[in-house]
Amino acid sequence: MILISASGLGRQYAGDPVFEGVSFEIRAGDRIGLVGPNGAGKSTLMRLLAGLDRPDYGHLNVRPGVKLVLLKQTPDFAPTETLFDVARSGLADALELQAELEEAARELGEAEDDDDRDRAARRYDEIRDRLEHQDAYSVEHRVEEILGGLGFRSDDYTRAAGTFSGGQQSRMMLAKLLLESPDVMLLDEPSNHLDIDTTAWLENYLARQATAMVIVSHDRYFLDKVVLKIWELHQGKVEAYPGNYTQYWRLRTEKAKLLDRVAERREEEKGDLEAFIRRWGVGQRAKQAKDREKKLARLESVPVETMQSIVGPVMGFGEVERSGDIVLEARELAKSYEKKLFDHFNVTVPRGQCVGVLGPNGAGKSTLIKTLIGQVAPDAGSVRLGHKVRVGYHDQSLDSLPPDATVLRAVWPEDDVSIVEQDVRNLLARFGLPGDLVHSKVQQLSGGERAKAALARLEAVGANLLVLDEPTNHLDIWSCEALERSIIDFEGTVLVVSHDRYFLNQVADRLVVVADGQARVVEGDYEFYQRLLEQRNAPATKPAAPAPAAKHAPAPSPAPTKNERRKRKYPYKKPADIESEIASKEAEALELEDLLGRPATWREPVKARDLQLRHQSLKDALARLYEHWEEAAEFNA
């Protein structure tokens, strides 16, 4: 069923078209990812869909009765409302139906004759059916499920909504939208302000919904998990691709190559025709040459379709002064505020390494990196920066740039007299801020433009230790890719806090995970860390698998005789003894995995090979131990 359709849709500002001639359909169950570079018009299109803006030309048709809701980035609640009140207001329709059901029940009880009673009964049954269809009987449970999934604790429910941080208030608005369950969800950067675990919850929740969705996001993992179709908005046009982000990029790349080959063949054909005409324009084959001229004219009259590349900014961090081999060293570091954030934290960061920092919201990631660079004093322990280390700090709120200054002056290093204005303009253009934009005030820039200006400032000051707190916030996908390339090619050292899993996986050599009052180092990228978590969780579930069956076991039957018992495969052992052996081998396997994740291990091929063989031997032994445990549990039941 088509919920929304558009034909020839266009919108312009000050005479300049944002997009034009856009046509599409949104059907029930569609989950669409809307991608495109910053400034392409994604937010404008979302506002048109939500009815908050009107097109300058074309037609946008919304099926009667279809409810659309746009995720609001700014809160719209009363100061006296609590968190639970705000979320629960998303179920206003269900709450209204509950009130109608109570009224219908009263009418049924007060009916004075059979006709009134039948009429009231029909109304009561109709409202009850609608409530069941909307699952409106479990209002409180649904609110708690959504709030818990988005990272709120039960003791937050009665807290005034206005006392939460800006990021938490954004999550409130997301909770309200999810509970509204509209026919079409319009989600503009829904994973902003979410940590990795909460983003994963949201991915799973959205992927289970039958609701149609249009989602703007720069999170490539998120798009891969949730969407079934991609709309690319670029140079005023929308082009649709089936599948998730990875499939879209593959199809786009293949299409671009195909169109390039077609264009090349067209040019070769034109060249052959022109050569024939030049050679045989007069003489015996002049008639054939005339035919070739007509064919050439027809060929030139048909435009050649080309694929316009989406080009992000160049970015790039240039040459920097070489620091010492050890850039940063922390020993027994500890910090607490209302709760412990981390203690006994030790890390050594060598020159040239990129360390990614991740963890839940509020765990202390920003505090950790500020402590490491001396902006926050530790409660215990020490931090030492290496020889000739120059720190450049990119804070996620982008407060490092004075809002009243022009972009040019905000980025221009005051203490470097060797830099001239053209150097700064060239630098800003490289980071995606060209032309007269450099004379705009910082406060007039969009979020993406301010983020690029802050990154350009790091390059301008020549920092050889880049400390980046959520640098991909506000950047489009192509700018994220440019930043990834810049970090990979950077000769200096990088500490980066991020919730963007794809980004971390591209740039991080190792991770620091901050959670549950501790910070620990993981020697590997994000995918390695995920595999480590899966392996650590798997043993806990495998031996415990027989337990649920015993909980609901049928009534015991007479014990089998000795001949009826199946023979043991393994020698007798108590399950507890086997569990102890499993735990020991699992711990050894994890230590080997940590070693195999370190680059230094692979500099010694013989040692690496021995570790691999030992790790495989442990995996085989664990498989036998699991089987032995299951047999022991069965025979000792």
Instruction: Quickly give the structural class.
Output: alpha/beta
CATH class of the largest domain: Alpha Beta
Instruction: Provide the spatial order of strands within the biggest beta sheet.
Output: 5-6-7-3-8-9
**Euclidean distance between termini CA atoms:** 56 Å
Helix content: 40-55%
Q: DSSP strand (E) fraction?
A: 15-25%
Q: With helices defined by DSSP (H or I, 4 residues minimum), what is the helix count?
A: 20
Report on the structure:
With 637 residues, the chain is an alpha/beta fold. The chain has 20 helices and 18 strands. Strands 5-6-7-3-8-9 form a six-stranded mixed beta sheet, sandwiched between helices. Strand 17 (510-515) and strand 18 (518-522) form a beta hairpin. Helix 5 (139-149) crosses helix 6 and helix 17 (526-544) packs antiparallel against helix 19 (575-596). The longest helix has 36 residues, at 245-280. It is globular.
List keywords for this structure.
single chain; 637 residues; alpha/beta; Rossmann fold; 5 domains; 6-stranded mixed beta sheet
Write the layout of secondary structure elements.
Layout: E1 2-13, E2 16-27, E3 31-35, H1 42-50, E4 57-62, E5 68-70, H2 83-88, H3 92-110, H4 114-133, H5 139-149, H6 166-180, E6 184-188, H7 196-208, E7 212-216, H8 220-226, E8 229-234, E9 237-242, H9 245-280, H10 286-301, E10 326-336, E11 340-350, E12 354-358, H11 365-372, E13 380-385, E14 391-394, H12 407-411, H13 421-430, H14 447-461, E15 465-469, H15 477-489, E16 493-497, H16 501-507, E17 510-515, E18 518-522, H17 526-544, H18 546-551, H19 575-596, H20 605-635
Parallel strand pairs: 3-7, 3-8, 5-6, 6-7, 12-16, 12-17, 14-15, 15-16
Antiparallel strand pairs: 1-2, 1-4, 8-9, 10-11, 10-13, 17-18
Helix pairs in contact: 3-4, 5-6, 9-10, 13-14, 17-19, 19-20
